[in-house]
Amino acid sequence: MERIIVLKWEKVALVVPEREDSILWYKFINDIENQIFLNQRWRLASLEAEYEYYDNLKNRNDKKMLSIMILESKKIIWSISLFDISEKNNNAVLWVLLWDKQEQNKWFWTETISLMLKYWFEVLGLHKIKLEALETNSRAIRVYEKCWFKEYWRAKEEHFDWDKYFDTVCMEILRKDYFSSLDN
User: Cα separation of 50 and 15, whole Å?
Assistant: First the structure.
């Protein structure tokens, strides 16, 4: 099936998620490493539950998801979502999930986040995007900083992982900061 491309860059494209992507979500959420990382050790999902999630998502105004596709291979590698979208305030919360572990630590992170910022601020006209990252996820934090996100708060010992607590790093980018970064 040919994917509907929302926006593309050099190597990746934002595409409309399809119901078949639920299989990727299903595999991702049932992986124990991912459950530990997301602090969802007790969440096992059926494929049917993931299909229901997709079916419910497409009718919601406060949540929007796009899939990320590598243009050369047409492979779907992750999803990037906006949650808690406030139409009144033009704010939203970013949520990123990389489905394919083989694609970790590769070139597309910065390109994809940059592409999403272009979509959010230039197409959707949002005012602010917020996100949260575990302090242990230094790779993601570096990418977000490279894409002009700034830390605005740190929730101390917010996340418990086996025998230790970790901070949650809260980051944001404002529309004006995004456009200022384009001038530099």
Answer: 19
